[in-house]
Write a structure and sequence with these properties.
Chain lengths: 251, 307
């Protein structure tokens, strides 16, 4: 029998309070290598705050976060990123004045060589071919030289996700990747994510409101309500869980 | 088209002093020096998005370094070295507030710094000779070639401008330029992609300030007499205006902005200076209200519409 996959991300008793409001209230869970973990919950249940605490964007009030067994609490986002942790934000975050290709090169360049050698080295930091592969992979080939601002919302969303993968991260946290994306593109996005997951053994944590997207993509789902985890299981288990239905409909 | 225009510009800049009187050559030299200072601010503000109201102070630091060293018999290149090192270090330190505050708060912090430098230049008489200023600043001799004459000194400055332009062009097209862009457009996202936004912010301040220092080193032998008021807040505001009017974040913005600020007042001297200032102020207000990206932004908009 194989040993169970080890935890890439361990979250222990993580808490974040804003004044008297406990946005995240003692959350603990593991994310195992290669899995796609869904994180769902009603609005205001603390999903994004949890992401921001894990990723160093917000200092947590208490608790600990480990990546590959290494404590990362207090690390800056750029340091975490260089440890192989990628992310997207709830709101679209691409660089509108850079072209699609430039956006992708930027997303990988800080992992290349040292800061000083990037000043005198090649303009594309040697990432041109990798960026082109990513552009093809996300079906953005006709738009490579367009400024990101000229893309449709759905295309920008794809670019946003593509950027998170440029540096070949081991763990990617996606905050509502399906939000505002039309159904056709959504199918494409799901296929891309599955492909990366299978080929690169990349591990994902996905916050999502689109239940169909979560249930068809994720291997395991956590349900958050009022800053706590109220349920955990496979998509099928979660679908029939009374506590979850209560949190969504009863609240 | 763009290349042809640039070539023409270079030809005009090389030929111009032979057709101008000394005062015209002086103005052209002043334009070159102000363009260099504005290129520095454009790096900090236009590319990296960090507002600074202290660029004039760095011109002052460079000018005093040149004035004090060369009047003591040191060659001008030592002044370049000192001014660049000083401005790099002080600019780096000035970047720290930018890690905490942004936009108009940062404007106030840098404004205070500019005032501080001005007060130091005025009050620390043992070093700067205070309000009396430093006079008889010599112009350099380079490998036996004296730049005493206005035309020679102009070409010396033009050469420095060419070097600064080339270095800046390289910088903004390198991965650093891309990181500066990202810092300006969305620092939080840049950080999440591994861009060390703290380090790049400090670098943007240090490099931009160092170029300001270089402009100062040329300013001192150009006017040959300097005193503190030349580097007060007015200069910083003027440089900011040059960058904004020319087109912040455009490579050629500072060239155009400095031309508007230095040369236009001379052409418009039909009335009193007060009248010119009224026209200039109204023109800037209209430009900023309708096209915050400056004259080059306006040109780009026109090209997209008609081209």
């Amino acid at each position: 029998m194989n040993a169970p996959p080890r935890a890439v991300l361990e979250v222990r008793s993580l808490a974040k309070a804003f004044g008297g409001i406990h946005a995240v209230n003692g959350v603990s869970f593991d994310v195992r290598e290669g899995e796609i973990l869904g994180l769902i919950g009603p609005n205001g249940s603390g999903k994004s705050t949890l992401f921001n605490c894990i990723l160093g964007q917000l200092p947590p009030s208490a608790g600990e976060v480990r990546i590959d067994g290494r404590a990362i609490t207090g690390m800056r986002p750029c340091q975490l990123n260089r440890l192989g942790v990628g992310r997207t934000f709830q709101l679209l975050q691409v660089f509108p004045q850079l072209t699609v290709r430039e956006n992708l090169i930027l997303a990988g360049q800080e992992h290349q060589a040292s800061m000083w050698s990037r000043l005198v080295g090649r303009r594309d930091a040697g990432l041109g071919p990798a960026a082109d592969r990513m552009i093809d992979f996300f079906r953005l080939a006709q738009l490579a030289e367009e400024k990101a601002a000229a893309l449709s919302y759905g295309q920008q969303k794809l670019l946003d996700v593509a950027m998170a993968f440029m540096a070949g991260p081991r763990l990617v946290l996606l905050d509502e990747p399906a939000g505002g994306v039309n159904p056709t593109m959504l199918t494409g996005l799901r296929e891309r994510l599955r492909e990366i997951n299978a080929k690169e053994r990349a591990t994902f944590v996905v916050i999502e409101h689109n239940m169909e997207f979560v249930m068809s993509l994720c291997t395991r789902v956590l349900v958050l309500a009022e800053g706590r985890i109220i349920a955990e299981g496979t998509p099928e288990e979660i679908r029939g869980n009374p506590a979850v239905i209560e949190a969504y409909l009863g609240g | 088209m763009k290349k042809l225009f640039l070539l023409l510009l270079v030809v005009v800049l090389i030929a111009a002093p032979f057709f101008l009187k000394p005062y015209g050559i002086y103005l052209l030299t002043l334009w070159v020096v102000m363009t260099i200072a504005a290129i520095g601010l454009n790096l900090t503000l236009g590319y990296a998005g960090q507002i600074s109201l202290a660029q004039g102070a760095f011109v002052g630091i460079g000018a005093y370094a040149a004035a004090l060293l060369t009047t003591q018999g040191w060659p001008l290149w030592t002044a370049f070295l000192l001014a660049i090192l000083l401005s790099l270090a002080i600019g780096w330190l000035l970047g720290y507030p930018a890690l905490r505050v942004q936009h108009h708060y940062l404007a106030f912090v840098t404004l205070s710094f500019a005032t501080l430098v001005y007060l130091m230049l005025r009050n620390e008489e043992w070093l700067t000779k205070g309000v009396y200023g430093v006079s008889n600043i010599p112009r350099p001799t380079l490998l036996g070639w004296s730049t005493k004459g206005p035309v020679q000194f102009y070409f010396f400055c033009l050469g420095v401008l060419a070097l600064v332009s080339a270095a800046t062009w390289w910088l903004v097209r390198s991965p650093w330029g891309r990181a500066f862009n990202a810092l300006r457009e969305n620092a939080m996202r840049a950080d999440s992609l591994g861009v060390d936004t703290r380090r790049y912010t400090l670098m943007a301040f240090a490099f931009g300030s160092a170029i300001g220092g270089i402009a100062g080193v040329l300013y001192a032998p150009m006017v040959q007499f300097i005193e503190p008021t030349a580097f007060n807040l007015n200069l910083s505001l003027n440089l900011l205006l040059m960058v904004m009017v020319g087109g912040s974040g455009y490579f050629l913005g500072p060239f155009l902005g400095a031309a508007v600020s230095v040369l236009l007042p001379e052409w418009m001297r039909f009335g009193s200076e007060g009248l010119y200032l009224i026209f200039y102020a109204i023109a800037v207000m209209v430009l900023m209200a309708f096209c915050p990206s400056g004259l080059l932004g306006l040109a780009e908009r026109a090209r997209r519409k008609f081209g």
